[in-house]
Amino acid sequence: MPYVSSRARILAACSALVVALLAVAASAPLPMTIAQPGDTADVLGRYQSTQVITVSGAATRGTAGQLRMVTIKATGPDASVHLLDVVEGWFRTDRAVMPTDAVYPGNGSPQQIARQNADEMKQSQDAATTAALRYLRLSPARVNVKLRLADVGGPSAGLMFTLGIIDKIRGDGHGGDLTGGRVIAGTGTIDASGAVGAVGGVALKEQAAKRDGATVFLAPRDECTDAKASLPAGLTLVPVADLGGALDALDALSTGRPLPSC
């Protein structure tokens, strides 16, 4: 029998222990969430066979082009995310690895999180409707706007809802479409006064927009740095701070004027 030194035996034992620990670490769930580009939806058209924007009490017009709201999808708060998932996510540009608490604060149950997302979506829709009708100088007592986007939550579609309502009712004010026939995507919250706010996940949303045919991406000005750093080739980034700025940018696209930049 060959002689095995004490040092070799110790190294072999330590190596076996390290392998065992790595195997346990690789199989243990981590408090992390993996996000990736989600669905997009043209707010001027239908989503899951349902018209997204319907208006009564005011004349509407046919539209061309698309105004696409964008989403990200993430593993749920109870999902099992392991070390190998995290390592893979770090090396992929179409994935983002984040602490679960940052994505789902408060340690709420999936049902509570779903209710919160639905509440934020409802508030976003109400603010979008108010901002659009104020811009159009229409009374909410006479004009009824319904927004339907099944299975999508959160506040980040506010800007695109507002632009969609305006395009449906008035267009660009000169008989044309806000889009100029383009596929335009975007993200951003909006409040009743028309201020556009940051939403997060802009890099993944740009990828979703590019994947679904957009050539222009409207992003909150507060997210310029992240949006510019991760911009896919062939997608024009347009930063906006408020509704007026977004409408001016769309007009600049149609007339060939310079666009705002980061």
TrEMBL record:
- Entry annotated with the keyword Metal-binding: no
Q: Which UniProt keywords apply?
A: Signal
InterPro entries for the chain: Ribosomal_Su5_D2-typ_SF, Ribsml_uS5_D2-typ_fold_subgr
- Source organism, top-level taxon: Bacteria
Instruction: Indicate the secretion signal residues.
Output: 1-25
Q: What is this protein called?
A: Secreted protein
Q: Which organism is it from?
A: Streptantibioticus cattleyicolor (strain ATCC 35852 / DSM 46488 / JCM 4925 / NBRC 14057 / NRRL 8057)
